[in-house]
Amino acid sequence: MSKNSHTETPVKNNAEAQPLLSTHKFLIHHQGDHVGVATTPIQKGEKVVGIYMDDNTEVEVEALDDIPLGHKISLVKLNAAEPVLKYGVQIGLTTKSCMVGDYVHTHNIKTARW
Question: What is the 8-class DSSP label of residue 54?
Fold first, then answer.
């Protein structure tokens, strides 16, 4: 009777085998941008690391709201009616103040086109 090698090899649970790793949870396109883009859902109260795509520097932010995948997190404090920069250009104007870590979306930003 042959031995089944799969039954003799212990299976490592990745959660047990490796310590928790902090990975980048958002990307920032340019130095000077006011927002980063979540690359994974971010939970309120979570301390998350983002990376600037133009020079690979990192920034840590505590999320003040849940941030869905692909949505924006504020990197700076902005007052109402201030420009919001992404990709190094203005993408809109705040409709109310934003704190570092706030979810930035249609409830607090509007297009600057109209």
Answer: T
Tokens 């958002």 belong to residue: 26
Token representation of residue 19: 């310590």
Per-residue pLDDT of 45-63, as tens digits, reads 999 999 999 999 999 999 9
pTM above 0.90, yes or no: no
Please give the structure tokens belonging to residue 81. Answer: 């009616």
Smallest CA-to-CA distance from 47 within 58, 34, 33, 31 is with: 58
State how far the Cα of 114 lies from the Cα of 111, in Å rounded to an integer: 7
* Residue whose pair of structure tokens reads 């883009």 in the numeric block: 37
- Record the tokens describing residue 99, joined without a space: 């704190």
Return the exposure string of 19-36: e unless at least 16 CB atoms fall within 10 Å of the residue's CB, then b: eeeeebbbebbeeebbbb
